[in-house]
Write the structure tokens for this entry.
Amino acid sequence: MKNSKKIPLPIAVTIGEPSGIGPEVILKAWDKRSENNLNPFFVIGSAIILKKQAENFGLNIPISIITSPHQALTLFKKSLPVFDFDCAVNFKFGHPKTETAPMVLGAIDKAVEFITNGSACAMVTSPIHKASLYGAGFKSPGHTEYLAALSKKYTGKNYQPVMMLASDELRVVPVTIHVALSKVPAILDQKLLKSTIQTVYESLKKNFDISFPRIAVAGLNPHAGEDNSMGTEDSNIIAPVIDIFKKKNIHIFGPMSADTMFHKSARSKYDVAICMYHDQALIPIKTIDFDAGVNVTLGLPIIRTSPDHGTAFDIAGHGLANPTSMINSLQLADRLSRTVSPTEKK
């Protein structure tokens, strides 16, 4: 179902782990809505928890409970619209409880439902704590994989989601995501690498308005294997895939030594860095711009972004959380929703 461009739609924001900083950065983002020119969004989660947290942080934020996402359009300027998931569980900052898991997962499920039925244009997810969700039936390695499973529920299609972390300084994509480092060499193959690069290439053109994307590909091993003296994956798996895309006249190069491709001069030569595993991608972007980075999921029939930080239990409840990444996530979700229908089938 495609959204009419004449009818604006709000963004659905999931509350995330309530004992972390997710609710705090949501509240602060709404409080700064005017200065950041944020378009309407609504929160899916416990209104009681949000009210208590607003009081805890000394934020004068009126909350309106809504029964339809469309109500957020008229209420957003004067109050924070909340699609309420009742959660009477007492929580303590920094101490997650399994009892809140039904609300956390229910919010994610409902957001996907709203986007799929054309009631919301995109979703922004606050950080979750996977360990506290397992008791409620959560079996996915992470948020990204769970959203792929939910998308299949509505479309009947299998999806291979791609995680991109983006900031003004850098975009990175890990080919393998939430897997143990010891398992990466076995998982990494040409099929996975090709599909990841293809998805990234198409998204940069379609959603990020980059006509001729420049793609840098990191090697797996130190010094990209150094002529097979430190592993053969770079020459046997990565290099042949790069050659395939070069033959399509795509500006792609590598495999590059990961230790030299993230300094300022190197970053100026590409639009995205394709990395082979989680930390190879996330360490540079979180070092360069920890507070402002955004996680955007590519390859799904819905638009989803999220802050590039976790639950931050160590500072939860102290009012210290920086809302910049949440604000950037909302802005990027809004921007992406204008380039493609959130439920456009490929």
In short: The longest strand covers residues 251-256. Confidence is low (pLDDT under 50) at residues 1-5, 341-346.
